[in-house]
């Protein structure tokens, strides 16, 4: 469905007759933005610390891969963000006074932050600034100004969450698989002076942060696009949390399957991801999923390529239509791939390799006899038989996938806005008259138009 020049793709069918939050910018909205900034900075900081670790220990191949994942995604997002800023400048001439004014000084700040690869922070700042101004005018009773700044906040927030989500899947997702793969290749018995606790904790904590960033990026994107679609009801706080858990568990299942497969077959995991990406791109092209954008065929292909990369890890609805059968088809193919990866790992994995818990004191104690081999895996597991130590990875995958499906079921059956809409906030007395909302922000940017909702 197309609205105000943007593509809203999603599967919900609920309709409401009031705008989101009655154009009131809430403190919890600030919390979502602040948490997004925190995860972004943590992700960047830990990635840089991980890259330094690899360089310091002369692991040049891992250092180069880590830096490539960081720099490529950052440069792409910098270019896209700059392109959108230029398009917004063109919109100023169309809207006149209805458009936010950008001074030369602010342009200098924008370009400086973009060159320093800190562009997302500028967009987060603008989101907060417009939101707080909207709240200020709401308290003063100036409904026209309140709605005007709220509208600007909506589209700035839409830009920021869109960029953040694609940055996550271009950088955090491959980074997560890479760093976990590296952990599986190093045992504590291998040069403890080189691969000590600090090295392990840095990579482990960075991997956790990347996983959280991925799940948060999808949730924030779903929540943000609900805000932008003024005819759609918002997602509640509890619903947002369940969406976060849903994708956190499903991403954990997907990443665990890819990592255990890569630990045995190494670069073959790249071909697995490319095959899934190609299959998704063909499906999207065959469905003409983004034809409603009115963009050229080339832009449609670009949309499909971008979403195909996301579909390697998660599913986002591509059209405003019921999602049940699409989710069923996607997760069936997705989990069949995961099971195949795990089974191949079980069949061809080296029984002498032990997947340990980083930082534990009893990671690899092997006692062999003619009949059995007992392996002690951290202080938690005492397993008998040469292949039983592989079960924790299989159990983890099964549990996280099951929990992910359970969270998805809870969201759609109990917490979807069509079933559990958040309450409409009462306006103060001096707001009762109401005014006509400001004209919508005409977004001529086709990439910025590509949005999805849950």
Automatic annotation (TrEMBL):
Membrane-topology annotation of the record: Multi-pass membrane protein
Subcellular location: Cell membrane; Membrane
Entry keyword set: Cell membrane, Membrane, Transmembrane, Transmembrane helix
Major localization listed first in the record, in broad terms: membrane
Record's keyword annotation contains Iron-sulfur: no
Pfam families in the record: XK-related
Region (Disordered): 424-454
Cellular component GO terms, alphabetical: plasma membrane
Ranges annotated as spanning the membrane: 23-42, 62-86, 198-222, 234-257, 263-285, 297-316, 336-357, 389-414
GO biological processes: apoptotic process involved in development; engulfment of apoptotic cell; phosphatidylserine exposure on apoptotic cell surface
Keyword Transmembrane listed: yes
Family: Belongs to the XK family.
Protein name: XK-related protein
Organism field: Chionoecetes opilio (Atlantic snow crab)
Taxonomic classification: Eukaryota, Metazoa, Ecdysozoa, Arthropoda, Crustacea
Gene of this entry: XKR6
């Amino acid at each position: 469905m197309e609205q105000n020049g943007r593509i809203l793709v999603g599967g919900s069918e609920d309709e409401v007759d009031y705008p989101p939050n009655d154009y009131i910018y809430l403190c919890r909205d600030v919390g979502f933005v602040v948490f997004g900034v925190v995860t972004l900075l943590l992700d960047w900081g830990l990635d840089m610390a991980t890259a330094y670790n690899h360089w310091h220990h002369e692991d040049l191949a891992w250092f180069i891969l880590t830096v490539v994942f960081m720099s490529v995604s950052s440069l792409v997002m910098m270019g896209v963000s700059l392109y959108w800023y230029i398009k917004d400048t063109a919109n100023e001439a169309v809207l006149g006074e209805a458009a936010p004014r950008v001074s030369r000084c602010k342009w200098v700040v924008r370009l400086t932050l973009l060159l320093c690869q800190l562009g997302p922070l500028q967009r987060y700042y603008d989101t907060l600034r417009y939101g707080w101004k909207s709240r200020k005018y709401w308290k003063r009773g100036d409904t026209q100004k309140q709605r005007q700044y709220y509208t600007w906040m909506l589209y700035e927030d839409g830009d920021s969450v869109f960029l953040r989500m694609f940055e996550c899947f271009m950088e955090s997702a491959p980074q997560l698989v890479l760093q976990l793969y590296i952990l599986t290749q190093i045992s504590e018995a291998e040069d403890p002076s080189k691969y000590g606790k600090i090295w392990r904790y840095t990579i482990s904590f960075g991997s956790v942060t990347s996983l959280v960033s991925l799940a948060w990026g999808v949730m924030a994107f779903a929540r943000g696009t609900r805000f932008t679609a003024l005819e759609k009801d918002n997602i509640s706080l509890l619903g947002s949390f369940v969406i976060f858990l849903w994708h956190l568990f499903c991403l954990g299942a997907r990443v665990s399957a890819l990592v255990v497969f890569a630990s045995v077959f190494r670069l073959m995991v790249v071909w697995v991801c490319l095959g899934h990406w190609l299959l998704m791109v063909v499906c999207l092209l065959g469905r003409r999923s983004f034809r409603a954008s009115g963009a050229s065929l080339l832009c449609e292909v670009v949309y499909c390529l971008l979403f195909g990369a996301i579909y390697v890890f998660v599913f986002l609805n591509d059209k405003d239509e019921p999602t049940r059968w699409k989710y069923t088809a996607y997760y069936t193919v997705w989990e069949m791939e995961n099971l195949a990866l795990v089974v191949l790992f079980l069949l061809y994995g080296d029984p002498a390799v032990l997947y340990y818990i980083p930082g534990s004191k009893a990671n690899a104690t092997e006692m062999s006899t003619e009949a059995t081999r007992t392996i002690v895996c951290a202080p938690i597991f005492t397993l008998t038989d040469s292949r039983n130590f592989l079960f924790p990875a299989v159990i983890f995958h099964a549990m996280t996938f099951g929990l992910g499906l359970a969270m998805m079921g809870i969201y759609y059956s109990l917490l979807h806005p069509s079933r559990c809409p958040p309450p409409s906030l009462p306006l103060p007395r001096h707001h009762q008259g109401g005014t006509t909302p400001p004209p919508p922000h005409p977004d001529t940017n086709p990439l910025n138009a590509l949005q999805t909702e849950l």
